[in-house]
Amino acid sequence: MNSSPSSSEAGYREDVLLCRVSCESASVAVLLHPTGNGRRLLLVSERTGHSALLDATVLDALCALTPRAATALVRAAVQEGAPA
Known about the structure:
The protein is α+β, with helices and mostly antiparallel strands. The chain is 32% helix and 33% strand. The protein has helices at residues 7-10, 56-63, 67-81; strands at residues 16-22, 27-35, 38-45, 51-54. A 4-stranded antiparallel sheet has the order 1-2-3-4. It is globular.
């Protein structure tokens, strides 16, 4: 038996760049990242190099945020990263 992975399986062993999302103050690369528990979204800040790995549960929770709650979440994260 041939135990080597098929070409379609091999394609999921590396990050795949899906898109870049940019505005005047930030630019983020969005990649599809394989893990042992399935694929995740890998977000990478092109300005700072910081990254976050998001699974479907986190993405589903983000979809439930109101614009006001999303703004508060971003504001808190920005303030947390600001120098004292």
